[in-house]
Amino acid sequence: MATPTAVHTVVDSPVGELTLVARDGVLAGLYLPEHRHRPALSTFGERDASPFGEVVAQLAEYFAGRRTEFDLPLSPGGTPFQRTVWDALREIPHGETVSYGELAARIGRPTASRAVGLANGRNPISIIVPCHRVVGSTGALTGYGGGIERKRALLGFERGEPVW
């Protein structure tokens, strides 16, 4: 089986530069600056913006407040459990949050909140797969691969607060 061909581009956003990665033309990564689990740049392939037109358009609509859901093919990789968590993240409505325990219950693994948190932290497609919508059991903002301030800004933005 051939190794997927990776390409990447970098786009500006209100939360900083976003590095978009595609494998065989499908979005496989969206990394924020200082992303905690960001792979090495050498794994992103050549710089090529051509496969990202629709991604960039939908991100622009999101940041302009005109889009609350993304409709894009995704190829995040990961383990079966991680993909289950990432799929569940996409079901959290815009402007809402859930706790790690709630998310674990939603995927039928009510005692797996720690594993859900680890999978959430490894999400390679930030914003589009909205890991920023997961909070601690008390509602406190807990870890975010792109930094707590970005998480706070994204959640505030989704709730209609003027953050940028």
Q: What count of helical segments does DSSP give?
A: 5
Order of helices and strands: EEEEHHEHHEH
Shape: globular
Percent range for β-strand residues: 5-15%
Classification by helices and strands: alpha/beta
Distance between the termini: 45 Å
- Write out the strand line-up for the largest beta sheet, numbering strands in chain order: 3-2-1-4
List keywords for this structure.
164 residues; alpha/beta; 4-stranded mixed sheet; two-stranded parallel ribbon; 5 helices; 29% helix
Strand-helix topology:
Blueprint: E1 6-11, E2 18-23, E3 26-31, E4 46-47, H1 53-63, H2 80-89, E5 98-99, H3 100-106, H4 113-121, E6 134-135, H5 148-158
Parallel strand pairs: 1-4, 5-6
Antiparallel strand pairs: 1-2, 2-3
Helix pairs in contact: 3-4
Short characterization:
The protein has 164 residues and is of the alpha/beta class.
Polypeptide structure, described:
It is a single chain. With 164 residues, this protein is an alpha/beta fold. It is 29% helix and 15% strand. It has helices at residues 53-63, 80-89, 100-106, 113-121, 148-158; strands at residues 6-11, 18-23, 26-31, 46-47, 98-99, 134-135. The strands form two sheets. A four-stranded mixed sheet has the order 3-2-1-4, with no helix packed on it. A two-stranded parallel sheet has the order 5-6. A hairpin with a 6-residue loop joins strand 1 and strand 2 (18-23). Helix 3 crosses helix 4 (113-121). The protein starts with 5 loop residues before the first strand and ends in a 6-residue tail after the last helix. The mean pLDDT is 95.
